[in-house]
TrEMBL record:
Keywords: Membrane, Transmembrane, Transmembrane helix
Keyword Transmembrane helix applies: yes
Chain segments annotated as transmembrane: 12-35, 55-76
UniProt source species: Candidatus Nomurabacteria bacterium RIFCSPHIGHO2_01_FULL_40_20
Protein name: RiboL-PSP-HEPN domain-containing protein
Amino acid sequence: MNMKRNSGGIGIFEIILAALALIVLAIFLFKNVGFFIDIKNFFTGGVDYGAVGNVVKFILTILTIFFLTIIAYCAVRLLEIRKKEHEHLAREIAEYAHKQSETERKKQEGGGVSDNSRWIKVLEHTFSQNPADWKLAIIESDSMLLDLMEQMGFKGENLGEKLKNADQESFPSLTRAWEVHTIRNRIAHEGLAFEVSNFEAKRVVAIYEQIFREYGYI
């Protein structure tokens, strides 16, 4: 069921649901005008236990209508959310399948895909359905960047120091390398508190790939 929304962000279903609730409430009130008379007599006259019972039934009926409306609304919203989740999962599966088929095709053609086993593992993590793997893809890519800079002869005990000892002339990819290395450090230092979406993981890995291909590393 396609739930379109107007410019104010209110869904058509919500409007219909509210209208039906108001109609039901109006019909109930019209048919039970005597309840209001009982309420008036209760406060202006002596205690009429029959009137008290009618008032209680009236209040319970109103509450029942209200909570049934809330339950119906929540049920429909839950169905909408599940539908969106299924659509998102289907897109992710299709994207992964497409990527795998492209990888296999390029392997058969003998070009386009690196035979670097570490990089292939990075791609597997990147297109995984597990969010933890997305972080692993970035961490492994950063480790590969460290290896690249060691091969290029940059000095330093770790990647951060090697980047500090580099400049744009000796390492033109320096700005991009700092960007992705900073994200890797946040993953390492903040742990679970630092969330990485699959889109962001793919973007970061793509930057690593650009750097690696520029220097023939993969």
